[in-house]
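F.,

This is the one I mentioned.
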């Protein structure tokens, strides 16, 4: 309170016990020897005969006090409290009595520190055991969200908070009584913009006035970010604790100024009550210590997992490169013997076909067809392996021209005369590797033509559309379609949803997806059995 100056508080730390034997006694000035002015003031901080502040004397007079004895309760080097003894008439307390009072106060202070230390140690040990259980749960399933928020032991058990939340990789999980998810995320964003890494408060609205929606359940917030990037965080919440505080007089009128512009203490000591809102119970030291220890544990787990993933990534990268090289080598080396098989089969068909019986003729046809399919598969494997190895040459180009070139390459008018082809005029230009994008269009268009040719009124449409705020190029058909549950499966390597009645290797859509991914884009499909399919892709490069 402003009635007790900071200077007086510092004096209590030095002196310990202070006596005023007679409030009415007049102070006596100290004169320098010989009547000369003293250059430096005399330090009377620990003098028993030092006069008291006139303001404090007036304060005591207003309370009708004749004498006072005050002892300081000191805890961990700070002024924890005061023991104030008042007498309504002058009273002198001798040195031995004062020392006894000081000794009793010191014993009390020691017991206070001991009790606080024992309580702190018990709670820290309990928190350490809880942390061990939490880490054990996390490392068992490698799921931080689940480990901290599910089961008997949770991150909430570490503190006296009412609710807690963990926010990692954009995923938020809560436990206990917490604000709504959207409000917690808004709080995290607000705290990410602050200069400090960690955040502790019992009056959130005072710190962040815009967070009024959190006042009831989160007036108290303890937020610890797991790294300097502030992307991931651990949070604990304490609810608003409305309480009535009683003062010895109106706290809003405790500092008075008289006509001489001199501060004077209050004259009324009637009880004054006020209701405090927007404030939670305080965060105890052990709570913050336990939370920080958990933060360190989680950070180490994330770092350990990162190292494992990094090592695994390097191993997968080497294995992937080896697989790409192997696929290319196998496909390349198969061409020569396959060319020989196909060549000799063609010779036999041309020169000796009529001399073979029905089984022999059928066998030759099977050999030639199989060789053709094998050649097509090798071409697809080579194309697949080359997608990752090929360098990209990005530029802006006309998607309409790409579509026209692909239609000519596939000889659509000649090979599929019954299919109606519709191409949207003036599609937006694309940016990327034109040859690679042409391969995507070719693969999607080949699929559409293949599975639409037997429809009653076959049609294929190529164009551009907006969906969910993003632009997509699309290839739409009214062919056989497929069940939407196979949406992800259809893009996997060598995966086909149709019978062998339709030619194909199951690589074309995988190649298309890989090219789109290389352009930092996305590809998806919408399909319905008997209605048709629509493949959509964009190039967000």
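My design for it:
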């Amino acid at each position: 309170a402003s009635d007790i100056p900071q200077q007086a508080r510092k004096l209590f730390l030095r002196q310990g016990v202070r006596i005023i034997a007679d409030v009415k006694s007049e102070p006596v000035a100290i004169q320098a020897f010989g009547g000369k002015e003293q250059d430096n003031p005399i330090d009377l901080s620990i003098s028993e005969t030092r006069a008291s502040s006139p303001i404090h004397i007036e304060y005591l007079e207003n309370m009708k006090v004749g004498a006072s004895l005050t002892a300081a309760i000191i805890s961990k080097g700070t002024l924890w409290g005061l023991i104030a003894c008042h007498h309504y008439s002058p009273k002198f307390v001798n040195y031995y009595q004062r020392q006894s009072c000081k000794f009793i106060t010191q014993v009390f202070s020691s017991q206070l520190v001991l009790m606080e230390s024992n309580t702190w140690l018990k709670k820290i040990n309990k928190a350490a055991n809880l942390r061990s259980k939490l880490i054990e749960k996390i490392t068992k399933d490698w799921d931080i969200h689940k480990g901290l928020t599910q089961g008997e032991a949770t991150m909430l058990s570490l503190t006296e908070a009412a609710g807690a939340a963990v926010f990692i990789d954009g995923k938020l999980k809560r436990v206990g009584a917490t604000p709504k998810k959207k409000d917690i995320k808004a709080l995290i964003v607000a705290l990410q913009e602050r200069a400090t890494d960690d955040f502790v408060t019992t009056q959130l609205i005072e710190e962040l006035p815009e967070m009024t929606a959190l006042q009831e359940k989160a007036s108290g917030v303890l937020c610890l970010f797991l790294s300097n990037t502030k992307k991931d965080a651990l949070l604990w919440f304490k609810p608003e604790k409305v309480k009535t505080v009683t003062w010895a007089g109106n706290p809003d009128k405790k500092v008075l100024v008289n006509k001489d512009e001199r501060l004077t203490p209050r004259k009324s000591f009637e009880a004054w009550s006020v209701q405090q809102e927007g404030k939670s119970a305080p965060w105890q030291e052990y709570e913050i210590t336990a939370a920080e220890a958990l933060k360190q544990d989680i950070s180490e787990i994330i770092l350990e997992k990162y190292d494992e993933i990094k090592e695994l990534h390097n191993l997968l990268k080497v294995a992937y490169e080896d697989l790409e090289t192997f696929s290319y080598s196998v496909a390349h080396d198969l061409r020569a013997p396959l060319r020989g098989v196909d060549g000799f089969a063609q010779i036999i068909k041309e020169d000796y076909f009529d001399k073979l019986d029905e089984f022999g003729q059928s066998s030759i046809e099977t050999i030639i067809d199989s060789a053709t399919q094998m050649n097509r598969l090798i071409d697809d494997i080579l194309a697949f392996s080359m997608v990752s190895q090929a360098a990209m040459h990005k530029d802006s180009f006309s998607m309409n021209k790409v579509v026209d070139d692909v239609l000519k390459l596939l000889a659509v008018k000649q090979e599929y005369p019954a299919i109606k082809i519709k191409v949207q005029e003036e599609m937006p230009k694309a940016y990327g590797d034109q040859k690679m994008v042409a391969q995507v269009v070719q693969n999607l268009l080949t699929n559409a033509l293949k599975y639409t040719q037997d429809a009653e009124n076959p049609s294929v449409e190529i164009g551009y559309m907006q969906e969910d705020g993003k632009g997509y190029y699309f290839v739409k058909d009214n062919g056989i379609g497929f069940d939407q549950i196979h949406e992800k499966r259809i893009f996997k390597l060598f995966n086909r949803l149709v019978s062998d009645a339709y030619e194909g290797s199951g690589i074309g859509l995988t190649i298309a997806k890989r090219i789109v991914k290389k352009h930092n884009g996305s590809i998806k499909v919408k399909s319905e059995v008997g209605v048709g399919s629509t493949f959509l892709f964009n190039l967000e490069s």
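Residues 394-538 form a domain with the Heat Shock Protein 90 fold (CATH 3.30.565.10).

Talk soon.
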